[in-house]
Amino acid sequence: MEYSFPRYLLAKQSVDDRALNQIVLNALRAQLSPEPLRIIEVGAGIGSMLRRLVRWDILHHADYTLVDDQPENIAFAQTWLPQWAAASGLTCERVGPHSAHLHDDAHDIRVHFVQADVFAFVNTNLIPADLLIAHAFLDLLRMPASLSPLLSLTKSLAWLTINFDGVTTLEPTIDPTLDARIEQLYHETMDTRPSGGDSRAGRHLFEHLRGAHAEIIAAGASDWVVHAINGRYPADEKYFLGFILHFFEESLADHAALDSAAFTKWLAERRAQIERGELVYIAHQMDFLVRKGAAGSVL
After folding, report:
1. What letter does residue 138 receive in the DSSP assignment?
2. N- or C-end of the chain: fewer Cβ atoms within 10 A?
3. For residue range 35-78, what is the model confidence (pLDDT) as tens digits?
4. DSSP states of 36-75
5. Cβ contacts of residue 137 below 8 Å, gap of 6+?
6. What's the DSSP call for residue 164?
7. Crossing angle of helices 260-275/237-252, nearest 10°?
8. pLDDT category, 297, cuts 50, 70, 90?
9. How many angstroms separate the CA atoms of 299 and 291, rounded?
10. Topology (CATH level 3) of domain 5-292
11. Three-state DSSP class for residue 101
12. Are 215 and 293 within 8 A, CB to CB?
């Protein structure tokens, strides 16, 4: 299997579509300022959230900045978003090397592609957005230290979605003891990354947000649930599952606390379960919509 991170981001769009918490999403619809909006998305990947907001009839007139530190993600976004726009009946015009204009009778969206470390971007951004989006991103960062700098990117709302919260389930069971050990060690790798991260980021965000003087408007679960229907996985979710196992393999290969031969056999059986349409994958996550407060205020 060839592993492409941009393709993984493409493949998980349908998974995220199902997972995003509808109560939090409805709160976002109700709380957004009148358009046009200024939006900043950090850890934006290939631009899937922009596509989603247009498809779901939430966004029509906006200045949208996608920030990601991976050059391959930004390069993919600059090619893929115009292709999607054209296929959806939107006109896409390049505006310089790092911007595009998506428009039709109902939409007028200026898109800016920024390849940068998010905190370098924080230090250079001059105009706070109406909405900050961080999708499947906060659980990769040092917390709570990262939260206040990120919130400086918005003057009002932040939509913080798909924050992992400590439960990974793969069914059917292969070996209860081995399955539990692999899950435990996998979560520990999230907690010990040099760059930061938290395998229980979702539940911890309640306290972190309060400490950052942010008001939680809405919160709820946004679990990934992937399973086959009549023996086949929807969309490109077979690839998504294969990539999840790739994450396991990258994280735990040669781990001192795991028998290498047993882990290799476990991965082979999990991949065989995907091929047979048997593997069920569940990951527990949390979504938040918050309003930025003034430093020192009590919300």
Report:
1. G
2. N
3. 999 999 999 999 999 999 999 999 999 999 999 999 999 999 99
4. SEEEEEES-TTSHHHHHHHHTT--SEEEEEEEES-HHHHH
5. 42, 43
6. E
7. 180
8. very low
9. 10
10. Rossmann fold (3.40.50)
11. strand
12. yes
